[in-house]
Amino acid sequence: MDQGQQSQVDEMRGVVIAHQPATTRVFIGSPSIVILPDGTYVVSHDFFGPGSSAWVQGVTRLYRSVDRGATWRLVAEITGAFWSSLFLHRDALYLMGPDRHFGAVLIRRSTDGGHSWTRPTNQDDGLLLKGEYHGAPVPVIVHNGRIWRAMETAHGPVREWGKRLGAMMMSAPEDADLLAAESWVCSPPRYYDPTYLQGHFNGWLEGNAVVAPDGGIRNILRVDDKHTLEEKVAVVSVSADGRSTFFDPMQDFIPFPGGSKKFTIRYDPLSQCYWVLSNHIPDTLMESYRGQNPSLIRNTLTLAWAPDLRNWEVSHTILHHPEASRYGFQYADWQFDGDDIVLVCRTAHYDDTGGAVRSHDTNYLTFHRIRQFRKLG
Q: Rounded CA gap, 170 and 54, in Å?
């Protein structure tokens, strides 16, 4: 790494896992991270943009670190994986998501820590849903004997981004064969409703499966509302069997820091709080962004917490750059690692080829550590 590149890494305060110059018209997306039982970190990301194959067949790369994130090694490249979540279940590593932009839902299994993977060909070995679906690297959790993962169908009657998406929850018995389509149940999708938010609702997406304080499953979704910088999320309740959902638009849209961008929520049993990394718009900068699209303001990554999933408090700014148009620290996925949080994000930043053209079109995948995170809350 030359001196110029090293200075950019120092400014980002992280470790570069992958770099893709904007001149290639291919961008880095969908970061996901897991920690194996032996302490190895495994990270995945895909590629999007006009120079990529995302609309035909997604391409996902996987990296491993055996030194707590200091160095990384590329170990696998998978064709036909996009917007996918890594997760561990019963001593195996899984990768689950569409095969392309608005594609079929596939799941793969690795028993060697991410080096080799099963190949989905039919509904017995990993092809879960045929058709058009949307997703992101969102949490996969186990609760009350079932495994849960949010997804969105893209079969909505209004064929526009956001408005075509229907929120749904996928689940399966935790002892089932996760590669078999018959193991999985999908809740009926909840589609775009033009009456929500006084007509300013533009869709919901990238839901988080979370266990609520009452023991029920919630799907907490990013909400697109370009009318205001006061961001919010939708809280959809899911039945215990995963076959039905409930949503009250009068009380289940709630204020949420960074709610118009993708976020990851996880529960910490030690602090007995929920934690989230999101692209919050600080109150001190709100006026300077007035009139802009909040979903594209991604230059601040913050840590927030809540005891109850509804009353969120921002505790600390993790990453920030003063320019929002071409800099971003977004789509952060993360895990608890003892007293720390380890995270990966798609980062738009300057590089020796001129940097990202806009914040959305990221040119880096970066790794970061938040030390002693509970003391920040």
A: 23
Question: What gap in Å lies between CA 64 and CA 40, rounded to an integer?
Answer: 7
pLDDT digits (tens, 9 = 90+) for 290-308: 989 999 999 999 999 999 9
pLDDT digits (tens, 9 = 90+) for 189-215: 999 999 999 999 999 999 999 999 999
Q: Residue 295 corresponds to which tokens in the numbers above?
A: 């979903």
Tokens standing for 124?
């017995």
What residue has token string 């078999």?
180
- Residue 104, both tokens: 């079929």
Separation CA 92–CA 109 (nearest Å): 7
For residue range 114-126, list pLDDT tens digits in order: 999 999 999 999 9
95: its two tokens? 């990768």
Residue ranges of alpha helices (H) inside 13-83 are none
Query: At a CB cut-off of 8 Å and minimum separation 6, what does 273 contact?
Result: 267, 305, 306, 307, 377
Number of CB atoms found within 10 A of residue 25's CB: 13
Residue identified by tokens 């590329």 is 74
Q: Are 359 and 370 in contact (CB under 8 A)?
A: no
CB 233 within 8 A of CB 256: yes
Single-letter amino acid code for the residue at 311: N
> By C-alpha distance, which of 150, 152, 160 is closest to 134?
152
For residue 130, the number of C-alpha atoms closer than 13 Å in the C-beta half-sphere is: 4
Query: Whole-structure pTM over 0.90, yes or no?
Result: yes
CA 324, CA 113: separation in Å to the nearest integer?
37
